[in-house]
Specification:
This protein is mainly α and about 140 residues long. Helices cover about 80% and strands about 0% of the residues. The chain has one domain. The chain is built from four helices and no strands. Helix 1 runs antiparallel to helix 2, helix 2 packs antiparallel against helix 3 and helix 3 packs across helix 4.
């Protein structure tokens, strides 16, 4: 799809829903594979999803406002990569304390777990954004 496709709140709600369903499944499986009990891994995955949904709505609104003011249109590799890095960086600040609390682990253990999850989610976020735009078109801010 070349031009603007799905826009506004409907676009954001659909994107967040699809993204978080995959994220909860992946997060739970990754943490379980790392030896954390499934109830705790699931609790962290759900808490992370709630935090991510709220952060996603705020971050993407701000990102698209910034993007709309840029003279270059479209979403290049650099713009998509910046989006993924900035999104994940903000989410990390929110999630490390959550992991510490729910998994009853140290700060450094939570940071190391988060670093591994960041590596996964940087790729996941980039690919999800690319696939979503391919299926539903670019948002008006990038078209």
């Amino acid at each position: 799809m070349n031009g603007p496709g799905l826009q506004g709140l409907r676009r954001r709600v659909l994107y967040v829903t699809l993204f978080e369903v995959g994220a909860i499944a992946a997060n739970s499986l990754i943490m379980r594979a790392l030896g954390h009990p499934l109830p705790a891994a699931g609790a962290v995955a759900v808490a992370a999803s709630v935090a991510a949904v709220l952060w996603n709505m705020v971050f993407n609104t701000l990102f698209e406002r910034w993007e709309a003011r840029q003279t270059t249109r479209g979403r290049s590799f650099a713009r998509r990569a910046a989006h993924a890095v900035l999104f994940e960086g903000g989410l990390t600040l929110l999630l490390v304390p959550v992991m510490m609390l729910l998994l009853q682990i140290s700060f450094w253990h939570a940071v190391s777990l988060e670093v591994g999850l960041i590596a996964f989610f940087l790729v996941y976020t980039y690919l999800m954004n690319w696939a979503f735009d391919a299926v539903f078109g670019l948002p008006a801010s990038a078209a």
